[in-house]
Amino acid sequence: MQKNKVFIETYGCQMNAADTELVYGILQNFNYEIVKEAASADVVLLNTCSIRENAEQRIYGRLGNFKTMKNEKPGLIVGVLGCMAERLRTDLIEEKKIVDIVVGPDEYRRLPELIDIAFNGGKGIGVKLSRTETYDDIIPYREDGLQAWISVTRGCDKFCSFCVVPFTRGRERSRELNSILNEIKLLSERGFREITLLGQNVNSYSDNGSDFADLLDACAVVDNKIRIRFTTSHPRDLSDKLLYTIARHQNICNYIHLPVQSGSDRILELMNRSYNIEHYLKIIEKAREIIPGVSFSTDIISGFPTETEEDHEMTINIMKSIRYDGAYMFKYSPREGTKSFKMLDDVTETIKSRRLQEIIDIQQKISFEKNQELIGKEEIVLVEGLSKKSDLFFAGRTDTNKVVIFPFDSKIKEGSYVKVIINRASSGTLFGAKKVESSKLKVES
Ligand code: SAH
Ligand code: SF4
Ligand code: F3S
Fold first, then answer.
1. Which domain holds residue 423?
2. Among 8, 10, 83, which residue has the most ligand 3 atoms within 8 Å of its CB, making it the best to mutate?
3. Where are the alpha helices (DSSP H) in 89-205?
4. Percent of the chain scored above 70 by pLDDT?
5. Is residue 369 within 8 Å of 320, Cβ to Cβ?
6. Cβ(161) to ligand 1 under 6 A?
7. Which CATH number covers residue 425?
């Protein structure tokens, strides 16, 4: 039997990227062939994101392109997966006639059946959220490589007032610890070198009495040549036990993504973030004490309703006092159905843009300065391959997730760890010279 060809285009966060691999895994078991471009596919699926208005606008633009494609190839099936499918449900089909399938994050097992409905001229719709679905038993489709994602929790129960995720991904649930370890074993056999454990709030992981620190501990010992990363940590639930676990294992990266969102307690309260700046700073201080050399990144929203110049200044102050290695910064975007949607979006577009630009500039300066401080220091780099810009150089990453470029050496293989002395740095990249291969995965303190 001839196989149907499927292509998935992925938007949004790493969890969506991981879900795309999961969906490919499901479809492969049903005799689908994965292709690398929409033009050669019978089924095109967009795995979508709803986090901000502009994320959805992009998808609408893309659906416009697929309309043209479908005119040329009438049998083509177009589907929308992910957060936007969950948020807009049948509205998407009513509004965009070219959409044949709408499937939310908890109904991917039904995709083969829903695609069949579409092939028979119907509309395939699956948008129920589940309290239990974790896709434990599905082996995601992954090409060979060094880096893999594993979702360890799905959904979110935090209900930050600005955020659409609890509505698009449903209630929080954890995947079984053993199924995660088994997946890491398979990845280890295939030569993977870096695994990122994913969840909207990994710190609330819980399975049969095991918490997130226990999970990390167990993951780290599967293969001591595999670096373990994780994201995202919510400041409310980050435990000392977790910090000690990171410090204890030389293959758990010294890197914590800890979104602060705002430097103002008043705004944090309105955001329903459930911590204040004092608590947040204590975590940072403790982490720096327990994990020498730990690096932090963050997320910040500019222009949340009622944000004043003083609130904005407080955000700048917190950035300057913590000195993050990196930050993802966004303009507030009101999302229907969330609590803050009911608040007046009273910070004008001009002010939002100005404040956003200010914090971007500040972060850029801090990132540059922090990278300068690394000149003359030794870093342990996982060699990822040749640099994109030149075959004369290798590119790799430090455990703090910084890109390092250093001279090619035929004795070094991709996937090995090397010590590199940093001799130059920009705000985004480090440059260095190799010393020797390293049996350690992070710099000893
Ligand atoms: N679970 C993660 C965040 C996931 S969404 C956490 O709690 O940190 C990623 C980031 O998008 C958020 O941290 C926030 O900074 C941003 N974001 C979410 N909703 C937004 C909105 N309505 N407008 C602007 N930025 C938003
Ligand atoms: Fe959204 Fe807050 Fe959950 Fe993060 S923790 S996904 S920001 S509701
Ligand atoms: Fe976007 Fe959904 Fe991720 S809204 S950020 S794809 S959880």
1. 378-438
2. 83
3. 90-95, 111-119, 165-169, 177-189
4. 99
5. no
6. no
7. 2.40.50.140
